[in-house]
Description:
CATH class of the largest domain: Mainly Beta
CATH superfamily of the largest domain: Jelly Rolls
Number of helices: 2
Strand order of the largest sheet: 20-13-10-15-8-7-28
Shape: globular
Structural class: mainly beta
CATH topology of the largest domain: Jelly Rolls
Helix content: under 10%
Radius of gyration: 23 Å
Amino acid sequence: MKTELQYQSGFGNTFESEALAAALPKNQNSPQKPPMGLYPEQLSGTAFTMARAENKRTWFYKIRPSVVHGRFSSVSVPLWKTNGVEPVTSPEQLRWDPLPEPSKPIDFIHGLFTLVRNGSPETRSGVAVHVYSATQSMTDSYAYDADGELLIVPEKGPLYIKTECGDLSVEPCEIVCIPRGMKFQVQLREPWARGYVCENFGEPFRLPALGLIGANGLADPRHFLIPQASFEDRAGKFELYVRYQGNLFKTVLDRSPLDVVAWHGNYTPYKYDLRLFQPVNTVRLDHPDPSIFTVLTSPSSVPGQANCDFAIFPPRWMVAQDTFRPPYFHRNVMSEWMGLIKGHYDAKEKGFVPGGSSLHNCMSPHGPDAETTEKAIRATNTPQFLDNTLAIMFESCYPYVVSEAAQKTPLLQKDYLDCWRELKVMFQPRA
């Protein structure tokens, strides 16, 4: 059975779940003698003194506290890069082909490839955008990210993600978010899985304010799901990977860290089916801004300016009259990274394929390719349904730095700029 996740809107909603009846203390968060000999442990996602409506924490009742572990050693993951100096990033528009299937067994953690990043874990701002390609489950290994939350967007192959709060299944066209510091394990359900990850160093993702849209539209809180408590009570030799200050460390455990028998709080993993998103679109003329497609937002210190907006471009009707329907040509103070989950993106006829990605950085001009533009100009006013499409975007107020590996990979398309070369001059001055 699944529990609906309700986002906080000043109400301080909390949830509770227990895998065994009577495992959850009823009147005290950290009693001296919890039920069943469990240890109380709090995971805090915000400072203790944050406003009640923004305070995030969950109490775990564990078989053994997390403090019991071995010494840490550094692990080399050269393609997961969120610190250090990178080569100069050009303002040029960039596009990458999808990651291929790995030729050897590799799990989710070791299969991460950083494309772009901004901010840093030290400043608690910005994001890093990765792609992953994995052929192996994390069987006796676990991980947590102390630098940020992980928003995982599968493109190929379903995942089964075990966490301290319980388990979540996620497939392409769905997303899952793992909070900062939450222990997890990623298992594959098919021989090969691929997708995208946003590692968010800033404020946690939340639903955007709807403003004049009103109470309904975009992502509905009732469609966000959190797991029921489940636990592993097994001894053995296990590895725990920790992402800390842009580096990866590993320690050894003699018991599974997913030993939470009961929990209560509001700091939980969650999943959402992108196919349930309710688009808001034009029904007469002109072209609304792409911000109307925002699913989740991570605010910055400037009101109305996002540390990161997670937006999607789903199947929808286009019905505007005498209006250029694809995304308009524009230059933006925000920086836009895009990926494709399925089908085609309505601004690019060729070259942008599922599993691929593109970057249009701060003030770099972009828009539909020449072929799409010509078709749009010749289009009639007949309503058009955009089917077989689902594109995603991580838009940030901070310019993206492109990792050295992403600048040198053969997946980087050398001819991306050619998609605009055939745009014709149609200027006809009138006498």
